[in-house]
Amino acid sequence: MDNDKIKVAVIVAHPDDETLWAGGTLLTAQLWECFSVCLCRKDDPDRAPKYYRALDYLGVSGTMGDLDDSPEQVPLAGKELEAAILRLLPPIHYDLVISHSPQGEYTRHRRHEETGRAVINLWHTQRITTRQLWLFAYEDGQRRYLPQPIQAAPVYYALANRVWEKKHQIITGIYGFGKDTWEAKTTPVAESFWEFADKEEAFRWMVNRNKENEGFSAV
Fold this sequence. Notes:
Mean pLDDT: 95
Number of strands: 9
Low-confidence stretches: 215-219
Oligomer: single chain
Strand content: 15-25%
């Protein structure tokens, strides 16, 4: 890795999460050297090749895992997710790690929530080390509208139109989602993140924000 670059890890549940929730940021971060971990769909003959094409377009390297992503969304043990992340993520000190919120980006996808909790737990227990953690900050009003960036989040970027068009091209052109699909309609024109520089603060925030989630466990 280039020692002059800012070392960034992007840890997501599915192919296209890296683009939907942070694609514009990745497209414009010229000083970042990014590695993206996708925890599901490694063996998907359709989505896996598209993920690597998307990463190439974004200027990001990365890899994939094969955690269960069946429609039933059977809960995964935190230790299983944490082990998968550690297998896939290069063991270096990062300047920034980006991942899902433990509340997810919309109502609701269990794998997004589980991934966010696993990343925070790994940082809290120092099995991942990073200077900062950013978590996707979006909400959908309990399904009343498409996911929207939370403007009150500490990090909020309104994307230039040309950047959004490139991001949308990844979703429609590389991933192949039609213009009337949820993914194409959702593709945010701004991106926002919860920001943490202290692992204890992030852990407390997770506990406080997720007590209401069914089946939530902080360990």
